[in-house]
Amino acid sequence: MDFLLALSRPPLVLGVDPRPELHGPEPLSHLRRYALEVFEALAPKLAAVKFQLAFFEALGPEGFGLLCELASAARVMGLPVIFDGKRGDIGSTAEAYARAYLLRFPGSALTVNPYLGLDTLTPFFQAARESQGAVFVLVKTSNPGSGFLQDLLVEGRPLYLRLVEALARKGEGYREGEWSRVGMVVGATYPEVVLTVREKAPHAPFLLPGVGAQGGRPLKGPGLLNTASRALFYPGGRPDLEGALQAAEDFHRALVE
Ligand SMILES: O=C(O)c1cc(=O)[nH]c(=O)n1[C@@H]1O[C@H](COP(=O)(O)O)[C@@H](O)[C@H]1O
């Protein structure tokens, strides 16, 4: 599966950030069953499923096994997969991260941190092209303190915009048809930034986290993949299949109709 197929699906991404304490006495087996049920029920309304690696790593070795199992299940259901790892390191280590998440899981996407420099992103871009995957580069994150570094003025422009300009130039080389394999992460909590960044990067798919629990509202537009974790996976603060379906329908109405 080519990850760019996600761009022709409904523009909602299901974030899976598992909280074992919400899954009773046998949390992993309950979580496995619940996640599969949610994938099945929501699949027609989703662009992709985004797995937050930290939450799976926190479950220990079994958690990593479960991540691989759920990612494979999503793919079997026709759902593109995003690994949210926010990886970033010197080139040789970046190559290992790219092998782990883009080449071992062809057609998937990975979130990456660009603040070690653009040279460190090249292995991710190359792996994404080779595997028909994608890379989502953190540009302007959804958290309240993101401006401390990301909004710093550099030659009169915020740092995140300088980054976007450089990425858009690089991303042209990784463009296929309408969309590039070099995507960007912009918090839905900063809707005005989404518009500014879109002007500079017309071909980049955008991942917009912060919808729902962080107060961001769904944003409509070509290539805008709205992503919600708690609001979709744990509506009302707990596992609830009916509630998840209702939440997905509400987002779908706001984004598609
Ligand atoms: O890359 C991300 O997905 C991400 C970037 C960002 O700027 N803000 C952000 O919240 N995220 C992730 O998006 C998810 C948000 O979770 P909810 O607030 O529950 O929807 C978490 O997995 C975060 O790690």
Automatic annotation (TrEMBL):
- The enzyme's E.C. designation: 4.1.1.23
Looking at the record's lineage, which domain of life comes first? Bacteria
Any one GO MF annotation of this record: orotidine-5'-phosphate decarboxylase activity
| GO biological process entries | 'de novo' pyrimidine nucleobase biosynthetic process; 'de novo' UMP biosynthetic process
Q: What organism does the UniProt record list as the source? A: Thermus scotoductus
**Pathway per the UniProt entry:** Pyrimidine metabolism; UMP biosynthesis via de novo pathway; UMP from orotate: step 2/2
Q: Which UniProt keywords apply?
A: Decarboxylase, Lyase, Pyrimidine biosynthesis
Q: Identify this protein by name.
A: Orotidine 5'-phosphate decarboxylase
Does the keyword section mention Calcium?
no
**Domain Orotidine 5'-phosphate decarboxylase positions:** 11-245
Which family is it part of?
Belongs to the OMP decarboxylase family. Type 2 subfamily.
Question: Which PROSITE patterns does its entry note?
Answer: OMPDECASE
- Catalytically driven reaction(s): orotidine 5'-phosphate + H(+) = UMP + CO2
Catalytic residues of the enzyme: 86
Recorded hits in SUPFAM superfamilies, A to Z, give: Ribulose-phoshate binding barrel
Q: Which InterPro entries match?
A: Aldolase_TIM (IPR013785), OMPdecase_AS (IPR018089), OMPdecase_type-2 (IPR011995), OMPdeCOase_dom (IPR001754), RibuloseP-bd_barrel (IPR011060)
Q: Does the keyword Nucleus apply?
A: no
